[in-house]
Amino acid sequence: MADRLITPSSDHAPAVNPRRTIAARAFKWFAPAAERLRPIVSRVRDSVAWARTKWFLLRFGSPIVLFGLWEIGARNGFLDARVLPPPTKVAVTIWDMIQNDQLLEHTGITTARFLVGMVVGTIPGVLLGMTMGLFRPVRVVLNPLIAILYPIPRIALFPLVLILVGLNETSNMIMIAIGPFFTMLITAMAAVINVEPIYRDVAKNFGVKPRHLYFTVTLPAVLPALMAGLLVSLGLALLGTVAVEFLVSTHGLGFVIWNAWSVLSLSRSMAGLVVAAILGAACYLLMDWLERWVTPWQSPAKR
Fold this sequence. Notes:
By secondary structure, the chain is an all-alpha fold. The protein has a domain at 106-248 and 272-302: Orthogonal Bundle (MetI-like fold), CATH 1.10.3720. It is 78% helix and 0% strand. It is built from 11 helices and no strands. The chain starts with 17 loop residues before the first helix and ends in a 9-residue tail after the last helix. Mean pLDDT is 80; it is low at 1-13.
């Protein structure tokens, strides 16, 4: 039998997927445009603005991820929602406390105590630390006293402060200021000791007055170390503020947290804790910006 050319009928032809056809047409259309945009994308990616945006996203992305995991864990039973309520419930509680329980007033009182305690502790600590670093006789006399007083737990000093000063805002400020005072004193002293002596020797040869020796020669050299000490002092000052409000105050975030916990209202206690954390984070970011402003010579890689 002669060979015959058999052509497939339309019934046996392979079916054409319309989605593949649309995808192929879209690829043919987008591929040249993508090639033209590739150099532009590369320039944007390598630009300074993109670098700043990338670090910004990385910095603020981690808290978002943390709150997202917290929400998922609390909603799906991985975390005990009675102890750690989900962030959405905490946010609703915060809004309710702002409207009905004067949460903003308590936050303002805590912020004022925190800032005053930071100032009262930081300025004397820096000045005394710089003095101990600049003048060895002062350091020899005061160093043993610092070694005795610094390890004492702050809360253990509270009864003594109450006896000496009384139960008032002054005693609260002293307790808050103790943490930043010792931190900044030790930081400033160590930073001044590590400054090259030739700077001070040159200043003394030119007859520089003591105040210029402090603020013109030594202070700029130790500013990066002082800024690092301030970041540590922020946490200690906020810790001291909340601890004082736990014990003796009837206003402030510490009072809100303790009062809510005492009646087992854990969502309200967590709300106060979150607001305190937001306050601390805002102060930390403000101090980071201040460091960039007062030490512009620091390279970005060291920040």
